[in-house]
Amino acid sequence: MAKMTGGDALTQALISEGTDTVFGIPGVQLDGLTDGMYRRQDEVHLMVPRHEQSTTYMADGYHRVTGRPGVAMVVPGPGVLNAGAGMATAYACSSQIMLLAGTIPSTLVGSGLGALHEIPKQSETIEGLTKWTARPTRAEEIPELVHEGFRQMRTGRPRPVALELGPDLLHAEIDVEVGEPFAVEPPVAPEDGVAEIAALLRASRRPVIHVGGGVRGQRAFELLSRLAELLDAPVVMSENGRGAIDARDPHALPAFSLWELRESADAVVSFGSRFLTPFGQQLNVGDARLALVNVDPDDLRAPRRPDISVNADATAVLAALVERLRPQEGWGAEIARLRAEGEARVREQVAPQMAFVDAIRAALPADGIFVNELTQIGYVSTYGFPVQAPRSYVWPGYQGTLGYAMPTALGAAVGAGNRPVVVVTGDGGIGWSLQEFATAKKYGIPLITVLFEDSRFGNVWRIQRDTYGGRFIGSDLTNPDFELLAMAFGIDFSLAQDADAVQRAIGEAILNGRPAVIKVPVDVFPSPWGFIHERKH
User: Fold this and answer.
1) How far apart are CA 6 and CA 503, in angstroms?
2) By Cβ atoms counted within 10 A, which residue in 171, 226, 295, 343 is the most buried?
């Protein structure tokens, strides 16, 4: 036993779990925690962004590129609400985020007396955005709950967790043993499920592998490539599954290829995917038999109609299949044809966007990190940007969180080590996080922001033009002078008029190793989805 405060115990528990960075904004309810962190500054670093939404976005970005849990910290009430968009995005993308949320004094919770930052039912609000949440009633409970939160993130489906912490508990003097992280058993593939899928694949002559966001990390990356080789099967990556296999692999195909493959596929095996359209319908596999592998049982139920469903970790099942299967004949030269035709179709239909996508890819090394925003270039990148390494592509998943990208990319850059990080954003989305250029400058985070400016919410404006007869409302923007803004923050700025200039500017920014903004004036591009919708029907 050792004598310490609740804040000391929490800090020590985080350090024991391998936490080296906390993204948070101090406040009076958190003083006991930040004081504990002050005493351990050589072991854990507090990074303070300029808006509470950025705490959880940065923690998410940090997790996405490192594979380690990200930790965020906010005050109660408005702090929790501001952090909610980042938590919702992390929830949609199965990210390991721990939110340390302050509360009002423990004895006042639920009293409705109007204590500073009090909101009704804060715990219930947080529960809707997390896999697990807890609020200790005694300071002695804090270390064990920290360890349980990390165990929850590392088992089953990874999703955000939260601890609510009263200021009285963080200041309390206690005798406590912080202890070690809880043991986590490696996931095991069920023998019967693996046997069923193996039999399905052995009998197949046109198997298709489909992967979602549940296939991630270096080991899965290597196993998936090996399985595709054994089966001579195409690997279709969902938007969230990009980076599960090297886009240069001769078996790799973008999500829209499933619509053509289903015409002759006799088996589809999907790993770690919700396997739904954006409208909640099962993806169409034609007459093929369907097997779903997912660690979350909810992602195996209706409206899905699998012939085989296996509730298990995707990587564990991949490993078992690679061990069990032997090389067999598959699609042969047809995969190369589909790859070539798909790329040609993309380049024909969205050539203006692809010029910039190509420029960014050429400027980045294979393991360079690309953070994608919901912008005109970003939508095309969901199928046009070749992801060549695991944990090198970030997207907000089904949450579609406009404005998430820049602060998420900051967190990615913190965790990226020597890997460069590029974020694309529009002049609409960047408006959520302009203040975070101050964070980049303060901490010397070498994030490269490629900012496309058309003075509109470009996709909204195009839809209003093409679908609603030019009845424009709420889609025009008035922007600051981004060069002067960058100067005010002390950030490098350059203007790029075309794709070649973007590639050169990114290369220079990588060499300089400083935060940089590259502004690209553009007009509204062709629809990024038109040719895909045609293929669906």
Assistant:
1) 50
2) 295
State residue 295's pLDDT score.
97
Alpha-carbon distance of 472 to 457, in angstroms, equals 11
Burial status of residue 371 (CB atoms within 10 A of its CB: 0-12, 13-18, 19 or more):
buried
pLDDT band at 1 (very low <50, low <70, confident <90, very high): confident
The three-state secondary structure class of 449 is strand
pTM of the model as a whole: 0.96
Distance CA 438, CA 54 (A): 12
CB count in 10 Å sphere of residue 415: 23
Mean per-residue pLDDT for 432-440?
A: 97
Give the pLDDT band (50/70/90) at residue 532: low
Does 535 score more than 60 pLDDT?
A: no
Q: Which amino acid is located at 29 in the chain?
A: Q
List phi, psi (to 5°) of 210.
Answer: -120, 135
- How many residues are there in the chain? 537
Give the integer Cα–Cα distance in Å for 132 and 97: 11
- CA angle centred on 130, ends 223 and 381, rounded to 5°: 50
